[in-house]
What does this fold into?
Amino acid sequence: MAFEPHPLLARQLRRLELSVDAAPSAQWSELLERVSRAYAEGDQERYLLEHSQDLASSEMAKIYEALQSERDLLESRVAERTEALRLSESRLANLVSLSADWIWEQDADLRFTYFSAGLQHRAGIAPAEWLGHRRLEVGCVDVSAQAARQHLAQIANRESFHDFSYGYRRADGVTRYIRVSGEPMFDADGAFLGYHGVGCDETRATLAARRVQQLASYDNLTGLPNRHMFVAELEHTLARARRSGEGFALCFIDLDRFKSINDSLGHAAGDELLKATASRLRALLRESDLVARLGGDEFVVVLEGQADRQALSAVACKMLTAVSEPLVQDGRQLWITASCGIALYPADGEDAQTLLKNADAAMYLAKAEGKNSHQFYTEALKRRALHLFALESDLRQAVEHDQLVLHFQPKIALDTGRMLGVEALVRWQHPEHGLLPPGEFMAMAEESGLIVPLGRWVLRAACRQLRAWRDAGLAVPRCAVNLSARQFSDESLLSNVAASLADAGIEAELLEIEITESVLMSDAGRASSVLKQLHALGVHVAIDKFGTGYSSLAHLKRFAAGTLKLDRSFVDGLPEDRDNRAITQAVITLSHSLGLQVVAEGVETPEQLAFLRGLGCDQVQGFLIDHPLPAAQLAQRLRRQAASADSA
Ligand code: C2E
Ligand code: MG
It folds into this structure.
């Protein structure tokens, strides 16, 4: 039976138009069958090959797929972990930065081996400055010996330490303040490896705390210890003195007329004076002497190991002289004096409060009795200070209760003997103490500011008196009124003068204003402008107590004054005292050459009068001629003068 040939063989036979059945022989049939088998086997092999290739590539694809997903999984896990790690690192970093600016490490020899960037960024310290060095070797500043000792002990014991603070002066000279905490590191066997820890820069906080401390203990303006610190220091001084048995002196210094300077020249000038006073006192005294500013214009000085009154007196004089040196500010000269009260430990007090109180009382008296001087505390002084203190409170009512009166002292022309003018001098009719001269209350009035209403009263009363004399038909003399420093610097001076004249209805030229040379010189620039304005009103101006200040000729020319009053102290020794003779002669010659009249004050003897007449002095005033007189008595003098003129 014919076989089924392989399709390829069948196709080839068909193309040749042959048939299997037509095989010429059995051998051909055999051949065809073998060829057909060979094709079939070839098919089989190809099939196997193709099949196996299919199989391999799909398996590979599967494995690849598996690998791919495995990798994706891994990658996403890595990403997750990385993110978690990043988060945790940044959380840690944030936490660290909450309490620390940098991280540091030291080796077992305690030498720095590592710093994180914060050291440079936060503290501006280059790690190279510290790497390889030990902490306390690189130059710690502002750390107490005790804190340093404690720190070293902790390190030696390999203990953790917390918040060790110290200062470090950088290479550029800037000091940074640093706080560090650290803990020791050990290996698995417990061997010490070094320290690591955190550090932070606390410069700002430290400086702020110091500023607070500075403000709380020191006076901002002068840099001296303030009252708070002074009291604490005084307690230490007392404790030392109690132990050693040595005495010390407490000096209370107060600037004279400071308020009026402050009011008239402004706070900047006042501040300059306070600063100058502080630095002058400081420069004069020993490093160990305590100098403080209690507030306002009050200073205190503690002189330890000083008990000898004479030596203390000398120191007090030196202090007052130093304070009264003129000071030039903005081209003008400022000038102030001070008064000083001294209390001694233990004689005048054994505790801070008593000593301060008694030194203050002594100062009060120095001031009330003429200023620019010092006083030691005594029991008698205390009584006097108490009396003055009471007086001061009474004085407040004196103006309102009409207790002030004016007395008038004549000034006469030396050539004619006629009364050319009078000086109005205030007195206080005290209900208990009787008639008090200005020396008893003027300094106090000046210091307390009561001088302003008091002075206003004097101006008005003087003008009213002139009016009353005129109304009584008398030839009215020119009347001089004294102005104090405080009044002189009062803004309303000119309007007060004008109002007093207008109210009384008298001419300005009947009024003369006396201002002391030292008040004028305390601010010569302003003085000359005020004097010009007074002059423009028609009021006369006299420079009082001439010779006691420091006028220069240039100033004298600028002041619109018509008269100089030669101070009583120069007239006092005439004609014997050579110096006074020379001064008197010089003042008279100088005044005349500047076109000024000279009035000599305090003339008590005929010899003085004769001598002054010989020098060509214009007018005299003094007990020899007349004491200051009540208005009624002065009126009699005026009447007598008018009568003698009529009869002449
Ligand atoms: P001052 O302006 O130098 O007045 C002259 C003082 O010398 C008066 O003292 C007067 O009584 C006194 N005196 C007059 N002649 C003689 C004399 O021959 N010998 C002696 N030893 N003294 C004589 P007073 O009245 O005690 O006044 C003292 C000072 O008080 C005055 O000195 C003046 O600076 C001040 N003062 C008086 N009244 C006022 C006033 O109303 N306002 C102001 N701001 N100060 C006044
Ligand atoms: Mg006078």
In short: The first strand starts at residue 102 and ends at 106.
